[in-house]
Each structure stands twice: as C-alpha cells, then as structure tokens.
Amino acid sequence: MTATEADEPTARAGGAGTDAAGTPAAAPGGTPPPVGAPALADLMPWAVAPLRLGRGWVLAPDAASLTRRWDRLVAAAGPADRAALFRPTRARTLHSAVAQLPGQATSTGPLAQESGRCPAPVRIAHGPFDQGWLIPDHRLLDAARPELWRIADDRQLFVTEPRGGPAGPALTVSALLPDGHSPAGRPGAVRPLYRRPGGREPNLAAGLTAHLGHRLGEPVGAGDVLAWICAAARPAPAGRGCAVPLTADREVWERGVRLGRRLVWLMTRGARAADRPRLPGGRRPYVRAALPPRPEPGDLAYDPREQVLGVGPGRISPVAPAAWEFHADGAPVLETWFERRVRPADPGTLEAVRPAVWPQEWTSELLELVTVLTLLAEAEPERRELAERTARGPLVATAELRAAGVLPVTAAARRPASVLDHPEEGPGGQFALL
C-alpha cells in the first residue's frame, strides 16, 4: 500500500457507460430522475466529509500487519528515522497534540515519545465493497472525523454518496464506519442514518416520515426511508449527488422498501441480520485449486465460458460474469480488491510490512465479495422496474415537501448533534470539552 493509497486509490479504466453490474447502462442511474425528485442531501441533511488518513500505512487489509508496523515505528533508532517512517504532514507530526478518538483508549502524548503497544486495530469500510483494518489513533490520522466515531455503534448505518464519476451504484450502505472514498479515489459524502448513538434521532428531514406515512396510509419509520433510498436513489445530473424519487403509491412503496432492505442486507454483508449472504448450492463459489502463497499483480484472470476466477494457478468457481464485470465509480471491484492486497510497496516503508503469504482470511473475504456482487447484480432488473413504476405513478415531489413544511431543512439539521455523554481525553491527558 502506498503512502497515499488510503486517500487516493489508483483509478482504473473501464466502467463508463455501464451499470453497477458492468453491463450496458440500463440501471436506474442511467436515466435522469423525475423532475422534482428531492435531493438525498435534503432528505438526509447531515453529511460528513470522508476520512483523510494522510499516510497509507495506518490502513491495511489485515490487522496483524498494522501491529507490526507500529512496533517498527516505535522501535526506530532515532527521531529522524521515526519521522521518515511516520511521514509527517501539515496536519500531523510526531509532536501533534490531539484528543483521543471517541471510544478509543489511546495515548494522547506526542508520538515522538511513544513506546507503548499498538492500539487494537478496528474494522472499517474501505470504499464501497472492501473492508480494511485501521489503527484508531488520532495522532496518526490527518482528519479522522470524530463526529462519526461518536455515533458508530451496533444500531448505526452509514450511507456513502459518491460525488460524480462514472456509472455505478448511486450510493452504498455500510454497518462499519466508512472511509468515504470510492475505488477510483473520489471522495463522497457520508450520511449516518442516526444523529445520536443507540439509533436515536434519525438523520432525516423533520416531518418526512410523518408526511410519507400520511400520503401512503401506513406508518413509515427511518429504516423504511433508508431502504427506499437504497432502492430508488439515482445520480442527479452534472454530478450533483443523488436524487431520490418518492412514490405516493402504497404498493410501489412497499415493493421498494422490500427491495431496499435486501440491498442493505447485501451491502452490509448481513451485519444487522442473523444470516450472511449466500448463493444457492449449485451457484456457490468454491476454491477448486489452491491459491498461490504469494500472488502477484496480474495474476487475477477470468474465464467467462468456464466461469472461473483464476489467481495464478488457483481457481475459484463458479463466478458469474456479473460479479467479474461489477464496477463502482468506474473501477472494476474484484480487480481493485485484489490489487490492494498484492500491489508492491517501496522497500523500507511501513507499507512494505505485510503478510509473508496470502492469508486464508483473504480467500474467505474474496468468496463473500463474489457472492455479494453476484446478488447485487441480479437485483438490478428489479431496481430498473421499480424506477419505471415510480416514474409512471404519483410522486411526492420537492414542491409538496416544501408546502408541507418538511423542506427546507434547518441549518441545525446539517450540523452534528451534541452527543458527548462522557468525558473524552484531550491532548496530554486533559479532558476534551464540547
């Protein structure tokens, strides 16, 4: 992993003019949303900028490498060697004084004097369809977005809204705290479902659920709105985020919510459910020939006729063409996932500290990713049909929401809520005050 990979992954060719499954553009994002469709930015008004790590070595596909990188940093022979490994920026140096990240019991003394053990790495969403491990130490991260850490719990879901770019999913949902970047390196807006911990205070325009419930003739909750957004959101023209057509047809709404709940389940990999996504037995991918212990860039290949994903001499099958062709923000998801794990790093850097051999856990993650992409691609026809039925039927447009007083949202709705329920340690062991 390069020093800037965590913030600016390498862009990949391909994907323009294709839908989320990589096929010719026909997904809901391929046509403009209906006139008057409200913006996601108005329906979910509070958004946070993506994480800016500043140095790629603090993020890795495995946790053990991060611990080894930390140990090497604190064992550096002198200040100059430690600084060379650390890679100071204007935002962070070895002498930066910053508060703890919420929920993380890390030291707040200067890194120049650090000699302790590595903070326990945490799992985060790295782009829309990858996961990584991060050292949750505020002294290492240029812009960690503490407001997101304060509300990340087992009730929270995060929507990441891409900002322009080639076709792909209009948005993605994660149960893990997301870094907010696309595979092609573009930043997105991170919109939490809830503004406070414990699933309290939905991040929705005030009065939205009540108005939709009145129009549809049934109760509407925050989870229903998120599911509908996930199923119906479409990229707005000129890269202006997402628009969300809102149906006033009860049958269409219920169908969209069912579809959206399935999409959320897939994108979060069953994190809030009792089961994880699986394909039926005859279509479930398996390792047919062992993957090599040290795969290299260029080893990943696909045979569409045999539906075999090759990793050097290793073979995984069956892998549906839709999974191989799946793009996000113009980047091929499977190829990007693989390259992040095998891309060479400069010798002597902390990024070069990585597993000596391919971990079995990565193979399991690859099989699950193939499953998720396959099932997401198979949902695209239903998404297209939902978009068509929504456009043909009665809509709850922006003008109606304005007349009902739901829009415009207040300025306070676009700012984080005050959620400091316990002291947070500030620089040098002092308590932080919010």
Task: Tell me what the structure shows.
By secondary structure, this protein is an alpha+beta fold. The chain has one domain. 27% of the residues lie in helices and 13% in strands. The chain contains 12 helices and 18 strands. It has a 4-stranded antiparallel β-sheet, with no helix packed on it. It has a 3-stranded antiparallel β-sheet with strand order 1-3-2, with helices on one face. A hairpin with a 5-residue loop joins β17 and β18. α6 packs across α7 and α7 runs antiparallel to α11. The longest helix has 19 residues. It is globular. The two termini are 36 Å apart.
Major sheet strand order: 11-14-13-12
Number of helices: 12
Give the strand content.
Answer: 5-15%
The helix content is 25-40%
Can you tell me the overall shape?
A: globular
Quick check: average pLDDT?
90
Helix/sheet category: alpha+beta
Biggest sheet record: 4 strands, antiparallel
Regions with little confidence, pLDDT below 50 for 5+ residues: 1-29
**Cα distance spanning the termini:** 36 Å
> Using only CA atoms, what is the Rg?
22 Å
Give the domain tally: 1
Q: Please count the beta strands (DSSP E, at least 2 residues each).
A: 18
User: Would you list the SSEs in sequence order as H and E?
Assistant: HEHHEEHEEEEEHHEEHEEEEHEEHHHHEE
